[in-house]
Amino acid sequence: VSLDGTEQQDFVLARAIKVAANNGAKLIIGHVIDSTALESAGSYPVDLVNGLEEAFKNSIAKQLEEAKANPNIPEVEVMIRAGRIRETLKDEMLDVINPDLVICGAQIMTTVIVAPLGVFAIAANSFAITAESLCYMPGYGIADAATTLVGQSMGAGRRRLTRSFARITVTMGMCVMGVMGVLMYLFAPGIIGLMTPVEEIRQLGVMALRIEAFAEPMFAASIVAYGVFVGAADTVVPCVMNFFSIWAVRLSLAAWLAPTLGLKGVWIAMCVELSFRGVIFLVRLKRERWMKRL
Length: 294
Fold this sequence. Notes:
Blueprint: E1 2-3, H1 9-23, E2 27-34, H2 36-40, H3 46-59, H4 61-69, E3 76-83, H5 85-97, H6 101-114, H7 119-155, H8 159-195, H9 199-213, H10 216-231, H11 236-261, H12 263-287
Parallel strand pairs: 1-2, 2-3
């Protein structure tokens, strides 16, 4: 969340804290001290900038402590920079953080869909998302390896080796996350039990994790295949595929199922969408259009 120091920032920050807590996400608070007037005057008093920075920190101190004390927010970071607002916001914040706007926007919309289902559903959804991250973290690690291996093979002009690395890493990712999915299904009660003692939340959380466990292999396929495509400098089409899958399939299906099936419907929609996404990424991987540069 980017704050501007105005009266509305308290409401914006409170909303950002709520969204981060509901999604088990890291909260990054950004603020740019506008240096345009100082630069036009031909001066840049460091003491004044430091004073403005301290004043901003004091203005959010109470909410900052609230966010840090929230067990559903794994990390809170404050980024304060001085410079021209537009350039500084882009170059020193957004480009550094590199947020995935497709995923972040979808998570916010999912929260909007889940919110009317009640506090138990909101809490269970948040805990389940946090717990599920244990499953897909290995997939992202393998995807990073796939990007490096494919990129090096593409650079060397070795088409056969590129194809082999792509298939090996995707298969490995699917196997590893498939095993993680089995473990998540078996140990879901214990995982959610560590997060909350409330029985209603535990039941919903276990249900969500066990539904999601079936999608882990195909989720791995989409994660690692995307890493392969990034290594091959083929990013536009995969980005569109991600956007369509998440916004057209997951959110539409979740909005349709949630009123009748509740939180179960939201996670069924997620499971279906991840499986669909994995299939379309595997199809693109098989067709090898991403190797057009070789």
